[in-house]
Amino acid sequence: MRSSALTRGIVALTATAASAALLTAGLSGSATAATAPPYEATSNAIGTITFYDSTGKVITSGSTTGPFAAYAAGTAASASGDTMAGLAFADPNPKAKPYDFYTHVLGAFSSYPATGAPAAISGLSTPVYTVGANDLTLNDFQTDSTAYTGTGYTDMVQVRMYTTDASGSVNRLSYDDADLLISGSTWTEVYPSGGGGTTPTPDATSVSIGGPSSVKAGGSAKITGTLKDTATKKAVAGQSVSLYERANSKASAKLVKTVKTNASGAVSTSVKLKGAEQFQWRYKSTSAYKASTSSYKTVSVTTSVALSVDHKTVKHGKSAIFYGHTTPTTSGIHITLQQLEGKKWKNIGSAVQKKQKLPNKKTSVAFRISHKFGKKGTYKLRVSKPATASLKGSVSKTITEHVK
């Protein structure tokens, strides 16, 4: 039987002794577990309840002062077609039958399947209740109820799960249940034994990686990624993913930063680079998801070379001095002066970058190359810096030199 529509909020549920006759024959009310409280023998339960934390891990204990669990999953619905579940606390009374226990729902009924829950829970076809932040706490319920005593009754609270369909009507004599022992501010599940279930097998995951192929020296690279559940093909939100970096495939990777995935499963962080680095996202396993790692993403660093000349026009037989510096500016870098001949660049001089006085009368870490042209004419010139293990090679802009 279903009662009239249940108000969506905190309401009390009680059943009269007369309604006991409405119990359907064959309900599995006889509990046989050694830890089952005595009232389970005459309970109206049609199944049991398993409790989970926010990651999808089965829990059998917790706090009484806040939401006692994140999710509760029953094993049976009151009727086929039910799509909403509600949870209630009941106060075991040694002088009353279970259908007459004082009962109080935690909050508004929630829809199931619980699509926003971890994969281990969202995939359940049985009733699931999502515990709300403002739901009735065990501590508040005990304050509002009577502290009965007796073997199997002292400090006990029964949790009941009711289900309903779109009509909102509820059969109060058909529910899944579990029993909690309260000690101070901690609850421990005593029935069903072991939490009524086992921790589900975690889903496999994948994490992708993205970012630029290169950045300028001293610049930052934004490394992105997305964590997905490979079983459901859905993004995984609210999970910690760590970014690691290494200089090359032979070097050890070190942690850069740990960030949480957003609602779309995405992560990102920016890293300032001095040289080429290889990046990888790593996700550690949880009770709901298996570990995964991305491939390595190589980000190269490009250097720039500034080139100037002391005189844009020189007399034949005189030398022109070509000078400048690289960015980043480092001593010991080999610089080559090149002249365009036809469509090819020919090396005509070189120098090592070091601290020295330049034609512009400044002293700095730079290169300085003197060159005397053999013929009069107009020449196109540039300088080249070779690649290193951590920096890409680069060339300067082309400048024009006139020899008269």
Compose a concise summary of this entry.
The chain is mostly beta strands and 404 residues long. The protein has helices spanning 119-122, 138-144; strands spanning 12-13, 45-52, 58-59, 61-63, 71-74, 84-91, 102-105, 110-111, 128-130, 156-164, 175-183, 186-191, 205-207, 214-216, 220-229, 234-235, 240-246, 254-260, 266-272, 277-283, 292-293, 297-302, 304-309, 313-314, 319-327, 334-341, 344-352, 354-357, 363-372, 377-385, 394-395, 399-403. Strand 11 and strand 12 form a beta hairpin.
Give a verbal description of the structure:
The protein has 404 residues and is an all-beta fold. It folds into three domains: 185 residues, no CATH class; 98 residues, Immunoglobulins (Immunoglobulin-like, Sandwich); 100 residues, Immunoglobulins (Immunoglobulin-like). It is 3% helix and 44% strand. Strands 1, 2, 3, 4, 5, 6, 7, 8, 9, 10, 11 and 12 form a twelve-stranded mixed beta sheet that branches. Strands 14, 17, 18, 20, 21 and 22 form a six-stranded mixed beta sheet that branches. Strands 24, 26, 27, 30, 31 and 32 form a six-stranded mixed beta sheet that branches. The relative contact order is 0.12. The N terminus is likely disordered.
